[in-house]
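Changelog note: in this version the structure field was regenerated for every chain. One regenerated record is shown below for reference.
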Amino acid sequence: MSTARRIATLILLLAVAALGWCAYLAWQDRLPLPPRWNPLAPLGLAEEPGPLTRYKLSRLADAPPAACYAWLDAAGVKHQPLGDRSETDSCGWQGATRLSAFGSVRLASTAPLACPTVVALALWERHALQPAAIVQFGSPVTGIEHLGSYACRNIYGGAADRRSEHASANALDISAFRLANGRRITVLDPSRKREASPQAPEGLFLREAAQGACPFFSAVLGPGYNAAHRDHLHLDRGPYRVCS
């Protein structure tokens, strides 16, 4: 082995050893890592999204539902845990809850949702949705209108398509936002005003809200994705990653 390869191997071994030692110290609570950078620290509502956010969300999703419900309660989310529901054709839900409000936002109608999806909504509301509303309108979001969360169907309703995340209450389709100042912003843009003026506040707000959802959700689909999403913003925590 050449001297250069020996040095490279030694550096790699030292790096692995250092990472292992840091992980051990963090596990022993002897390394004061900020919670945002500590993979063993629980997910916090006030925690800014970072490289470990998805991992912590997944860890909470893998925990017993009671742990997720407790997280929602501590975060002040208004919800009612639901019993598991099983239907034919691979539909139903496990560890779901009926959501009515989160943060400063109240849903126009309650929605059954998988608990980790509600956690993602709460994080999105705090770290992306409200900041976007304040920047663009100087007024917070107080209400969300939606087209539904649970539906036993395939993607786009096609018989040959795979099951939609709606079939397991793992998705929410948002159609409009209401602000504290009375303003209502719909995702649908029938007059194409936003298309003609992409820098107008409404268009900027919707784009920032959608992009801000990507750290917390697997799929974020809106009017820019395809015609089927022209009137709503689809958020889900399924296995497929797409942010449009």
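Spot check on this record: The first helix runs from residue 3 to 27. The longest strand covers residues 105-114.
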